[in-house]
Amino acid sequence: MVKIGVLALQGAVREHVECLAAPDTEVTIVKRTEQLEDLDGLVFPGGESTTMRRLIDKYDFFEPLKKFAESGKPVFGTCAGLILMSKEIAGEGEGHLELMDMVVERNAFGRQRESFETLMPVKDIGEDIQAVFIRAPLISEVGDNVEVLAKYGEEIVVARQGHLLACSFHPELTTDCRMHRYFATMVKEAKEQFATQAISS
């Protein structure tokens, strides 16, 4: 059994909870920093990244979230969550939590009326993943330690850096939960690795 939290300061929280639901996964809605201590993995949902950052600061989540990710526990960010995780935001300089070595561009696929849905291949996950792009950012640059898992045309939209996973679109707004199952597997593998290290030490 693994315990995965969904940061519930703002955004599509319930949809992520539903996609993560599984017999071997306990899903927690995270509204207090102390809840992070019991988690094996964490999801940053889509929403509005500037608002989310303001709430992260207001409720003193900044350092606890940084420490959670730096401890090696998996984190999955979608849309605005991807922006929170990036090292740099194009045209703005430094990012928010600066967890992943990548540069992102806000609203790269247009405004609300340019939203669209498509099927696309995502490495190691599936050839026909449902992807909903709503005011979506894109990843314009990645560091050497970041693996590109998917592109839409020439634009990077899914990337992984070790225990960190980020995508431009909203997988939680579809009935296709393979992105979430992939993340849950990352969480299980990380938990097993932590357990092995504890035994060997």
TrEMBL record:
The keyword Lyase applies. Transmembrane segments: none annotated. GO terms for molecular function: glutaminase activity; pyridoxal 5'-phosphate synthase (glutamine hydrolysing) activity. Pathway: Cofactor biosynthesis; pyridoxal 5'-phosphate biosynthesis. PROSITE patterns: GATASE_TYPE_1, PDXT_SNO_1, PDXT_SNO_2. It holds the Pfam family SNO. In the presence of PdxS, forms a dodecamer of heterodimers. Only shows activity in the heterodimer. Catalyzes the hydrolysis of glutamine to glutamate and ammonia as part of the biosynthesis of pyridoxal 5'-phosphate. The resulting ammonia molecule is channeled to the active site of PdxS. This is Pyridoxal 5'-phosphate synthase subunit PdxT. It comes from Thalassorhabdus alkalitolerans.
